[in-house]
From TrEMBL:
Any Pfam family the entry gives: NHL
Transmembrane intervals: 492-515, 527-551, 615-633, 673-695, 724-741, 761-783
Segments annotated as NHL repeats: 48-87
G-protein coupled receptors family 1 profile domain span: 506-775
Keyword line: Membrane, Repeat, Transmembrane, Transmembrane helix
UniProt-recorded Gene Ontology molecular function terms: ubiquitin protein ligase activity; zinc ion binding
GO annotations of cellular component type: membrane
Compartments, as annotated in UniProt: Membrane
Domain of life: Eukaryota
Listed name of the protein: G-protein coupled receptors family 1 profile domain-containing protein
Record's keyword annotation contains Glycoprotein: no
């Protein structure tokens, strides 16, 4: 890029750096004149693509660089003047078009000058005038009578300059002349007058301190809130016994991030006016003026005089340091560890409760030989979820690696301070300082580790209602140990499951033999019981599959996640399907018996069998429909423990897996209702049917045999059919443990009383094993069918 042939405007700053506005390339470049080779240039402003954004220019012309190396650019085709503060790529519109504040209307500004008092003068080319700023804003200085060739008119001026007397010389382009206007300062007479306001204070050894440039040097400072009643330009002049350094911020000032919200800053340039800030202030915005010193830890008095269009209100924000407490603590190898910010593992930490006597603003900071991080929580701190309840944190940035927390604390609220380190496994001594309006104290605080929470590394799950076999056995099973090396409880459980499976298999085989006989299938009851014999075998089979799946996958910590995910999603719903189906088939048997009593000789056996066939087909789909939500909300929860944070040393992979159901409150209520429905529903149907059989049968007999009264018939019916009352009660009692376990909180510590939970869980699976005892043994018809079928099998067997 040929700089010499492409430049429109040139400017050399105090460091002998040449700035060049490149009209066609829409940017400003700079070249150091001190370099032996000036072939390389650096972009000072603009992206090279013309546009209206804050980091773009369109046909830039005149440029000016002040003593702070801030760059002012006449952005011609954007009709504005842009200020690019030193080192910034985004510009600030100080004159012309602006999305939220219009200062003055410009049309292709082409020349720009900033005077010693930071007032801006602009050659407004297509408006044929020179304009300047003062405390009241911008006003026209020359060429204020429109385009023309008269002595007081201009025609497309594109540049201008001042001499030492304040006279202005204008390159009047289209009039082909140089115009001189004498002593332009007289045109601004009385424009710099305004209301005055003074503020006096001092920086002392008790003043607040901060790292002004985020470097190693500490500076005393005082922050002052500034509120103007009327928008306009205001001038701050500071003098006193210190070498002042002033900064103005928009809305708030953060000493830990002194660049954030910064609008302007200045420091002493000469002895007459030690510090001078000229800035446009909006009446709708609160500003913060920060007074500090040019050199570190300088103290002394200072006074601020401000002039502007209207009254200015000052309010001191920072308060003197008033140390109320110095607390010493030490992080050791025995201190607890956690994942700091869910990113850095094995960070030792200490938790302290803050006791506040008086509501107010407090400052907490640390001193130690290592980088310290500080966090303040409201009410409680959970190391597994470090973002929960977090109010404020600081990582030591811009404070020499030590945390500093500035926060408003209430005396009615519990606050928790967490002190930790930047890097893992760091130990050492710390001192915590607290400054505030009144006495404050710290005491050790122990976070509550809820067993309802599982997970690690900020990957946690809060267990809800319902204990599963995973929950009962998880803490008892030891990874990477064979079954013989497991606890006695696990080995006994394994034996019991095998015994239950064998008993269930015998029950199902005997029941199948009975109900497969044609005499047992004369009505629908036999078909229901034949199907129940099959589903009870499937239920007890799924139970043993469930048990061994949980045991083997917990023992083998390297089991494939796809296998675990498939088992989690399918085994439990299928197990429930067979259990519920078996209960409802028993209820169907009770209903048909009641219908038989009601119909008497009019009972239609063919219709009964037809209804039974349709019911047996439809019932599984209806039950599965009530369980479909489990497939949607049942998932595998996988979490990795940090190195050295594993729950036991036998799991080198540090991987832990749990099958969970993540229900919303409404789905949880629905799931509970489904559980009650499938457990209590069959029981009620069985009980009501049994009562109807007894009392209905007694009524029919009393009508036929009048020699006995109704009460005697009821007693006779009860003696004859008492198993119909006893059997549903027995089945309900045996199923109640499953209901209780399903409603217990998932965070119950089962390891403390393992068999208190594991025993009822096993008992709840005994009903499918009792079909033969409940339905076959008490019935002469079914026992006869069983004996006939059994004898037939014996004759066929060699």
């Amino acid at each position: 890029m040929n700089v010499n042939s492409s430049c429109w405007g040139l400017f050399v700053d105090i460091n002998d750096t040449l700035y060049c506005s490149m009209l066609d390339h829409h940017q400003v470049v700079k070249i150091s004149l001190n370099d032996s080779v000036m072939s390389s240039n650096h972009v000072a402003a603009g992206t090279g693509i013309g546009g209206p954004d804050s980091n773009q220019l369109r046909s830039p012309r005149g440029i000016f660089v002040d003593v702070n190396l801030d760059l002012y650019v006449a952005d011609c085709d954007n009709d504005r003047v842009q200020l690019f503060q030193s080192g910034e790529s985004n510009g600030i519109t100080v004159a012309g078009s602006h999305p939220w504040r219009k200062t003055i209307t410009l049309s292709c500004p082409s020349g720009i000058i900033l005077d010693a008092e930071k007032y801006l003068f602009i050659a407004d080319q297509n408006n044929h005038r020179i304009v300047g700023s003062n405390l009241d804003g911008f006003r026209c200085l020359v060429g204020c009578n429109g385009m023309g060739s008269q002595s007081n008119q201009l025609n497309q001026p594109f540049s201008f300059s001042f001499d030492h007397s304040g006279n202005i010389f204008v390159a009047d382009h289209s009039n082909h002349r140089i115009q001189k206007f004498k002593y332009v300062r007289r045109l601004c007479v009385n424009t710099f007058s305004g209301l005055q306001k003074s503020y006096s204070s001092s920086l002392t050894n008790n003043s607040q301190m901060y790292y002004r440039d985020c470097k190693k040097e500490n500076f005393y400072y005082e922050s002052i809130q500034v509120k103007v009643i009327k928008s306009g330009y205001y001038t701050f002049r500071v003098s006193g016994a210190i070498d002042p350094y002033g900064s103005i911020y928009n809305n708030k000032f953060n000493p830990l991030d002194p660049v954030d919200n910064l609008l302007n800053q200045d420091y002493a340039h000469n002895s007459d006016i030690q510090l001078k800030l000229d800035i446009y202030l909006d009446a709708d915005i609160i500003y913060v003026l920060v007074m500090t010193t040019f050199d570190s830890k300088e103290v002394g008095e200072f006074s601020i005089n401000i002039s502007g269009r209207n009254e200015v209100n000052f309010e001191r924000l920072s308060t003197p340091v008033n140390i109320q407490l110095i607390y010493s603590l030490k992080l050791t190898d025995n201190s607890p560890t956690y994942y700091r910010d869910c990113q850095v593992p094995q960070c030792h930490y200490e938790t302290l409760q803050i006791h506040v006597n008086t509501t107010g603003s407090y400052i907490l900071w640390s001193k130690s030989n290592t980088d310290a991080y500080g966090y303040i929580y409201k009410n409680d701190f959970n190391p597994l979820k470090p973002s929960e309840n977090l109010l404020l944190s600081h990582d030591g940035e811009c404070n020499d690696g030590q945390f500093k927390l500035i926060i408003d604390l209430e005396n009615t609220t519990r606050y928790i301070l967490v002190v930790t380190t930047r890097n893992p496994k760091i130990t050492g001594s710390f001192s915590v300082f607290i400054s505030g309006p009144n006495n404050v104290s710290l005491s050790p605080f122990s976070p509550k580790q809820s067993s309802c929470v599982i997970g690690d590394q900020c990957n946690v799950y809060m267990k809800g209602i319902g204990l599963t076999l995973d929950d009962i056995l998880r803490d008892e099973l030891q990874p990477n140990k064979v079954l013989n090396n497991q606890s006695f409880s696990i080995k006994l459980s394994a034996v019991l499951t095998i015994v239950m499976f064998v008993a269930g298999l015998i029950n199902s085989v005997l029941s199948f033999i009975t109900f497969h006989h044609k005499d047992a299938q004369q009505v629908g009851c036999g078909m229901y019981l034949l199907t129940s014999a099959i589903t009870s075998l499937l239920a007890i089979s799924m139970f043993i599959i469930k048990f061994w799946f949980v045991v083997l996958t917990h023992i083998n910590a390297s089991t494939s996640l796809s296998v675990l995910r498939g088992g989690c999603a399918s085994i439990e719903p299928i197990l429930k399907l067979f259990l519920y189906l078996d209960s409802w088939l028993n209820a169907c048997v009770a209903v048909e018996r009641a219908v038989l009593i009601f119909k008497g000789v009019n009972f239609d056996k063919k219709k009964s069998k037809s209804i039974a066939r349709r019911t047996i087909v439809i019932l599984p789909f209806c039950i599965f429909g009530t369980l479909i939500h489990e497939l949607a909300f049942r998932r595998l929860f996988v979490y990795e423990a940090a190195p050295g944070m594993s729950k036991n040393n036998e799991n080198p992979n540090n991987r832990y897996v749990s099958c969970i159901t993540h229900y919303s409150p409404s789905i949880q209520n629905y799931n509970t209702a489904v559980l009650f429905f499938h457990l209590v529903g069959p029981f009620i149907i069985n009980l009501l049917s049994a009562l109807f059989i007894i009392f209905g049968g007694a009524r029919q007999r009393s009508n036929a045999r009048t020699n006995q009264n109704f009460k005697e018939h009821v007693q006779e019916q009860f003696r004859e059919h008492k198993q119909l009352i006893i059997s549903p009660i027995v089945l309900l009692v045996l199923s109640i443990p499953r209901l209780i376990i399903s409603l217990l909180p998932g965070c119950v510590k089962t390891s403390e009383n393992l068999w208190l939970y594991l025993g009822p869980y096993f008992i709840s699976f005994t009903p499918p094993m009792l079909i033969f005892l409940i339905f076959v043994c008490p019935s002469e018809l079914y026992m006869k069918a069983f004996k006939q079928s059994f004898n037939r099998i014996r004759r066929r067997t060699p």
